[in-house]
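[Solved] Which block belongs to which protein?

Original post:
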Amino acid sequence: MRKTLIVFLALALVCACGAAVCTHAVAAPREDVTFDEHVFAGDPAAAAGLQVQLQAALRQNLFWDSTMRFSGRDYTADTAFRFSPVAVSREQPRQYSGVEVDTRVNVWTGSDTNPFGYGRAYQEILDTLEPGQTGTKVIRVADYYDEYPLWFSVDLPNLFITTLDSWDDHDAYATDAERDAMHALRDFFRIPVLPDEYVELQIDKDMDGSSSSYGVSSVQQGDRYWPSSECVVTESACYFRLSNRTANGKLVDMSRIPGGYGVYMLPYGPLAPDSEASAFYGGNENEVYTDRLACFFPVDPETRIEHLALTPDKTRLLLHTVENNIYYVTLIDCKTGEVLQKLAVSDFEPEDDYVNITETEDFVCIQQTQGRICVLTQDADGLYQIALRSDYLPDDLYSPVYATVRAMAFDGKRLAIVNNDETVLANDDNRTKSYLAGTTEALITLDGAYFDNCGFTLTVFDQTGVAYSGAYVSSLESANYLTGGTLNMDHLVLPYSIALSWKNDAA
């Protein structure tokens, strides 16, 4: 009786936040949450010993914490309900983006020599317009730039530097150290513009003859290059790599970069005590050491870099590459650049246009597009070994690894992957569609909306392939099912987190 009273009072308090929220909270089960099983393939017994922990929430006040345990072909589910009168936000660990690089050619300035913008090209369009008119022009980028004008952002512990749209503005507000860092990065990464890259410029002319707005867009002509970056951060350096391929898969000339193509290193550390910035920040900030910026680990331009990561102890790099249709993982010492191991993981066919990589403290999971999943673990010496390699038919799986809320667990023989399911929703019952075995009882009926539901899909891999694939529909979805009306995210019970583990004694 006391527990019932507490739950009632919690829901009553939520009523004060809005009638719609209260209605859906009352409709939701409290602690008697159930999960309806849908078997897609294989035997549920393959999940024996698995424990799944899910958390769903309404706003940030009502929480349902469920634990599911798989034993043989059976499973049990226990749910604890809790209410917080104060919104509980989920704390995320601080993630540093390191060095981000992009082309910045969409800004107009009045100076042709400004590193950003098509000043001359925009002015040429503007000169042809009458006040109040809008003009467009397709131009070849190489007619205005010999090398790409690159934009940099540096996000490291106690350090953030970015190039503003207008370099003149950045000069006005930046410290000497920040200006020097940006100049050093631009001078280091010199990449010739593609001869066949085109963009369309657009500009409006005000009644006084000046420009009121301007922009740039891509066109279906020629090729294009985005210098997308990927970074990892240690306590003393940022390691990063840039893409060296165009949108059409051609190689970009990186010979003007000192050391060429590869993995680059930008060291950082405390500001000099007598520096301008140190006095301004009170000595609590870091700076980048651009004089030590270098190509840390050169890579053959023909080699396709798929991913850059750190080992859990952050002392070694893990470089994922494709060479001659073989997928490799190379272990590199962060201090010396020495190759400690180069492991051939699997064949990599041209149809494998991308991979999905998940890193945990205990293992690395690599999933290839064409139906192969590999798990790597470390031995006592820190070297990697293939612990599981499993082939499967992608069409036979139901959403095995792609979801907003997702987790993995590996027991040495079995890899389990859980995801929340994304359901497609529509008000018209004839158009309503669920990816969960054709069911419609757990749908939120909002036109054209995509919401993550409170259940999950489960896939278990072993050496034979997919040992089990199924879905578990949560009864919490009943709070979200409407025959009409309007909802927003604040009115929905949504997944908050999901985790899983193997209990080997039950396996």
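(Second protein starts here: sequence line, then its structure tokens.)
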Amino acid sequence: MAITNPGPGHSGTTGSLNSVAAPVRATLSSNYIDFTSGAGNDWAQQYLPDLIEAEAEVFGPRTISGFLSQVGAEESMTSDQVIWTEQGRLHLSYTGTINTANGDLTIQKDIDGNDLTTTHGIRLNDQVIIATSEGVIKCLVTDALKGTADVVTVRPYEKDNIDDAAAFSTGTVACTVLVYGSEFGKGTPGQGSAAEGAKAIEPQHKSFSNKPIIMKDYYEINGSDVSQIGWVEIAGEDGQNGYLWYLKAEGDTRSRFTDYLEMTMMEAVKGVPGAAAATGVGDSDIDEFLSASGDSFGTEGLFAAIETRGNVTTGVNGVNPGTDLAEFDAILAEFDKQGAIEENMLFVNRSTSLAIDDMLASMNSYGAGGTSYGVFNNDEDMALNLGFSGFRRGSYDFYKSDMRYLNDKATRGSINDRAAGFGIRGVVIPAGVSTVYDQTLGRNLKRPFLHVRYRASQMDDRKMKTWITGSVGGNITSDLDAMQVNYLSERCLVVQGANNFMLMK
């Protein structure tokens, strides 16, 4: 408040309201009541500002959540782990070695690279294709009981021995073997005869598991500041608005925690008990730090699941449209070797999205196969409203969307900039559901390829818990003059049929 009264006979000193006024009209800091102790903070008390009340959103919609809600589902669980079973391949194909001189075939792995010896399904009188780097030859299994179960004897149809064929040299070489049928002589016992070394082929399956982890966050504000009115009108990520700054802070904490839930489901990795180096916290390893029992820690996120059990590509990087198209077709060829899920979703960063656009632009509409929106009930508006653009290549439909998490500088964007050769550029996720066997219910169920499982029971739902403690905010739980907002979630991700997923690095 400025006080000026330069009357005659006054000395012009300054002081209290009863002091003699200054003889000269001047705008001085001493003429104003300072509510902020200066240091550049008193400008608003001295000059009336043209104040823009609304907070500027310079980083746009800062939250990155929504990815999992677009591609998956959420289901409750009541255990410390979730287990699911995936069926094996129907046909018998293996890798191993073949002695071209005597026809001894040693089975080492299945076609997907899983180690095996005695569990292969090759039997007496099976017809097989043997492929080496030197050629391909068709044979009949003449001895499936070589003393060691991983060795069988094959004889070529057209030569006495495999090395008699012009393309094959003598020796032991790596090979791939495919069973394509069987052949028996007239009047011989069937495949089930004990004399023929009977061995029924059991369906192959593989079980996988994941465990939920507990995530927490926290916000606190004292009772006085809860009632503090600010000059800036705020708008939170969850729609809060007003002049109470704590609404902004609490809303940001909630939004950040919600993003953490999604980011964890993508980035998390499983730990190996006892394998971590000492952390210095009580001379404990990480597993002991998190769990006194030394149980396994961590959980398997999307990226880790695809790297471990799925497919990885470095293609479609925008070098040139022609090269990108060939690399994209290589991705299709890999999918052909797997489940061949016809509808897939592409979640990519900006550069990869533009590379795909340039790739498609280099093709005519016939070559591109037109636009399809099958997974959205062929509703173009629905697809576009969700930020997807569809295209068809070969027998596959793809729906492309930018993934904010991979672009934002405050999230994966900066990580990719720093370690470009190790960054994540996108993921290809099969649309629809898969059929799995539920061990609890004892029957087959339809489940999304990708979905979140969270802990919940009749007593407690831990999908997203929020509670307030303290004496502020209407819920008095203690004599603490503050509002404490707590957040908790316990969840994990289930990636079924990871062989149908693709990670773009």
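Accepted answer:
You had them paired correctly. Confirming on the second one: The longest helix spans residues 245-267.
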